[in-house]
């Protein structure tokens, strides 16, 4: 199905070994910040996860023992733009997290936005040998899915079975051990731009780190920001980052759609910088302290001082009203939300039984955004924060760390993916497996 099959299996094995040794790090490579958390596993909480059906489900409990965040360098639209600057930033943030944890980390799990994700819904059907469904039958039905030709310039990032049906009984989470004749599955496959993935892999390799897993920030943000009922009944998570806005749709506790809008909070900052003729750093500060998207009568009288250091006294001592600032910010935020609305409509979001929308990410903290989103998206909208994780510093509990916290959940309680099963050899030619092994050797 993809050259990433063997390397993804190798990363899963590497992740499992690192977790058994007790320490692993998660890395969120974003446009505005790069965050790193070091996790220690204490060997408790070995209850089986109800979400997974594979051997990786139900891992041990963990605690955050090291954390650090640094301003991102060399990343645009969620993709690496300048390799050297990104490498330097990753080295710095990982070393600082290791220093806080007082332990060395060799394996990291990374997530990123951007890379033009595309979702596919696949289905497969087989006849069960011996009537009792076994591990090999699940592998065969996943291999039977008719994979579209998604192009040689793309790679599969996630391939998750979201539903099983045995004879006429649908909605099964784990069909193994049950009696039936015909096994059917529905699988969600997410592909991304191959170059963006290879750049991230190469950058982490240059930092003397082993990549033990890779994920889409749209997926992991939904894991941390959506509550259990929302993941079960159907909800969309919109992660408004600095350079890209990721969106994912969950149903039956599985992601069924993901996409990215190549606009984010940095574009709002850029509009303020150009509109008010101030440096980017000043525009970011003004946006943080005085920004908003819903104007009131008081905003005409609330004045904001624009301090500068150009040498022109009149230019450096200007003031603007908060209403003018809102007038600059609102059109860009509306544009982002309109793009999100178009992606949700294309995915058929209105057909879900529950149409809850959760806004998270650093850009979601703009005052009044939930009200504006309700008008544009026309659904139930709430602001979401990542769930609490044991040992997480208070500074890392805000919406901007939804993807980072979601990486912890992705690492410790992973859902089953296509490469967790031993697929039949006759499904793949030697040429395909040979290319996969070659890709793995070149990139690790």
TrEMBL record:
GO cellular component, one term: cell division site
Keywords assigned by UniProt, alphabetized: Cell cycle, Cell division, Cell membrane, Membrane
Gene: ftsA
GO biological process entries: FtsZ-dependent cytokinesis
Gene3D superfamilies, A to Z: 3.30.420.40
The protein's name in its UniProt record: Cell division protein FtsA
Family, as annotated: Belongs to the FtsA/MreB family.
Domain SHS2 as annotated: residue spans: 24-225
Taxon lineage: Bacteria, Pseudomonadati, Pseudomonadota, Alphaproteobacteria, Rhodobacterales
UniProt-listed NCBIfam families: ftsA
Main subcellular localisation: membrane
Subcellular location(s) per record: Cell membrane
Residues spanning the membrane: none
Organism: Shimia marina
Subunit structure and binding partners: Self-interacts. Interacts with FtsZ.
Database matches in InterPro entries: ATPase_NBD (IPR043129), Cell_div_FtsA (IPR020823), FtsA/MreB (IPR050696), SHS2_FtsA (IPR003494)
Pfam families: FtsA, SHS2_FTSA
Entry function: Cell division protein that is involved in the assembly of the Z ring. May serve as a membrane anchor for the Z ring.
